[in-house]
Amino acid sequence: MTLWQRPLKRFQAMSHDKLLAYGNAKGERIYAEQRTRFRLNSLKSFVSLFVVGAVLSVALAACGENASNSTTEAPAASPVAANKQNVELTLVSFAVTKAAHEAIIPKFVEQWKKEHNQTVSFRQSYGGSGSQTRAVIDGLEADIVHLALAGDTQKIEKAGLIQPGWEKEVPNNGIVSKSVAALITRPGNPKGIKTWEDLVKGDVKLITADPKTSGIARWNFLALWNSVIKTGGDEAKATEYVTKVYNNVPILTKDAREATDTFAKQGQGDVLINYENEVLLAQQKGEKVDYVVPEVNISIDNPIAVVDTNVDKHGNREVAEGFVKFLYTPEAQQEFVKLGFRPANEEIAQTKAATDKFPKVKTLGTVQDFGGWEAIDQKFFVDGGMFDKIQAQRKR
């Protein structure tokens, strides 16, 4: 079942008779009470019942007409939004996608206006992926979530806001943007940072975000762990190595944007782990950034999903699904590439623009190597998990 068919299937599961009964339960109770109260041996009772019956007939007919309209007027779309001249979407995303969405959204708005004669406006919220996830679960009425990791989207699913199977109804298991981890150094790389192993040097101070609040920080943790496992180390060696790395972290920021500001604007640390796309975006803005993309790396995959409960409430499912679909088009994917994201679209990934822009990674780990996000969270990031144990061993 595709993303566009789900509302139709859900609607068809309810029979016409059930809709009528649901819509007129109160009327039927009134009718039953009137029927008990009056007797047919009285002309007055007969007239009263006739009047009540007529009223109910009109109500049932009106409900039947409305139910019929609901099934014939774009059932796979949003009948509410279809009748609006202006439609608003709320996009909730992780911090580093802001520039990409600000470039893509005007293109979608223009296309939608041309094809549907509707003006779409966006409310946008950006922050740490973990924090954004909790905000949506706690009541931030996002229509679309673009988060740093599928595990965060799954948390919203478990909260009952996104229907199961969301990742199977769009391309690439819902992954719409990609990146890898990069090590950003001070100009000239005075500490000689070239590989992951260099991060455990005693005189190296590393800046990274907190995995408890930031999606990128979880990717950073996995990249560190993966660098040991993919080069032949076991879990004991990985634990030892990652513990040493975090001993060199003077401050854990709440999200990737704050980590970048701490490193670049406040001048703290010798090296910053961040998304490769953040580095490339900074270079496009004219900043001189020295960085290394390690040959052993992790595929940082960012999913997109429609928040079913909210789009149905807001009546804008058709537009929300249209935006998600648009993000996979070559036009949108090229914007992701321009702003430093590795494309999810394979055709775009093979273009000269993409191959020239992104260094080739020799050994690339994936979430699947770790058993998926549920297994990752249980092992590393739940309260009392591996990250908390490592934190407890940090030198104070």
TrEMBL record:
Q: What main location does UniProt list? A: periplasm
Q: One GO biological process from the UniProt record? A: sulfate transmembrane transport
What is the protein name stated in its UniProt record? Answer: Sulfate ABC transporter substrate-binding protein
Location(s) in or outside the cell? Periplasm
Domain of life of the native organism: Bacteria
Entry's transmembrane regions: 43-62
State one molecular function term (GO). Answer: molecular carrier activity
Looking up Pfam families in the UniProt record yields: SBP_bac_11
